[in-house]
């Protein structure tokens, strides 16, 4: 899982979203906490989380950086949908940032641990082979 978080950090760097994210991180965290509360199973949670993350990607960066990041994804995962992969990586990035930010706030830390656990559970389930 650590490798995925490294990829998430690299995706954020490639998108050059650092300044925007720093300026708006509390608002981003607040909104995602509302979206990600307890809203059904993990698949529903992911489905509801990715659209605001996709919006964040487009607000925070340039089209040029977005296209370059998509190409980076295509090189590693030629059969994947680059936009979806970038959104999933940035969701991981935001989660890691929130866990760091709220390290001294037990209530919010617990909320983000819950969010992290749901993401990781979904990632593990979605990577398991399916019998046909």
Properties at a glance:
0% strand, disordered C terminus, 132 residues, globular
* H/I helix tally: 6
Output the helix-strand order: HHHHHH
Number of domains: 1
On the 0 to 100 scale, the average pLDDT is 87
Distance between the termini: 27 Å
Strand content: under 5%
Strand tally: 0
Q: Using only CA atoms, what is the Rg?
A: 15 Å
Shape: globular
Helix content: over 70%
Main beta-sheet strand count, sense and barrel state: none
Low-pLDDT runs of 5+ residues are 128-132
Notes on the protein architecture:
There is one protein chain. With 132 residues, the chain is mainly α. It has one domain (2-126). The chain has 6 helices and no strands. It has helices spanning 2-15, 18-36, 42-60, 63-76, 82-101, 106-127. Helix 1 packs across helix 5, helix 3 crosses helix 5 (82-101) and helix 5 runs antiparallel to helix 6. The protein is globular.
Concise structural overview:
By secondary structure, the protein is an all-alpha fold. Helices cover 82% and strands 0% of the residues.
Summarize the topology.
Layout: H1 2-15, H2 18-36, H3 42-60, H4 63-76, H5 82-101, H6 106-127
Helix pairs in contact: 1-5, 2-3, 3-5, 3-6, 4-5, 5-6
């Amino acid at each position: 899982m650590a490798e995925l978080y490294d990829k998430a950090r690299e995706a954020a760097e490639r998108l050059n979203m650092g300044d925007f994210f720093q300026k708006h991180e509390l608002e981003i965290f607040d909104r995602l906490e509302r979206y990600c509360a307890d809203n059904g199973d993990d698949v529903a949670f992911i489905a509801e989380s990715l659209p605001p993350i996709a919006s964040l990607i487009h607000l925070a960066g340039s089209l040029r950086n977005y296209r370059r990041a998509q190409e980076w994804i295509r090189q590693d995962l030629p059969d994947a949908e680059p936009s979806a992969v970038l959104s999933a990586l940035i969701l991981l990035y935001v989660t890691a940032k929130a866990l760091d930010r709220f390290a001294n706030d037990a209530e919010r830390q617990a909320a983000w641990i819950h969010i992290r656990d749901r993401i990781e559970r979904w990632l593990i389930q979605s990577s398991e082979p399916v019998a046909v």
